[in-house]
Each structure stands twice: as structure tokens, then as C-alpha cells.
Write a structure and sequence with these properties.
Elements: H1 2-25, H2 28-33, H3 41-50
Helix pairs in contact: 1-3
Length: 51
């Protein structure tokens, strides 16, 4: 139970970091095409990681 909770947290954190890394590679124009700005990246990544 405790180990599975820790593993779940680690997977969520890795998903968060991957999403931030991928979105950060996009240009401002590409982010705008997705309806995002640079300030939205962490929020979107956090939402994706917990979903």
C-alpha cells in the first residue's frame, strides 16, 4: 500500500516533468495554436499528471 502510493506519486511527477519538457520545446506560436501561453504550461502539466 505505502510503496504503491510512492510509486504512483513518482509516476505522476515523471508525467508532469515530461509534459513541461514537451510543451516548453514549442514556440510561442505553436503554444498559441493550442490556446496556451507559456504561463499555462505548469498548470496544464499538473492537471495532466493528476488525471
Amino acid at each position: 500500500m505505502f510503496l504503491s502510493m510512492i510509486a504512483s506519486k513518482i509516476r505522476s511527477y515523471l508525467r508532469y516533468r515530461e509534459t513541461v519538457r514537451e510543451l516548453s520545446r514549442l514556440t510561442d506560436r505553436e503554444l498559441d495554436d493550442l490556446g496556451l501561453s507559456r504561463s499555462d504550461i505548469q498548470y496544464v502539466a499538473r492537471t495532466h499528471a493528476t488525471a
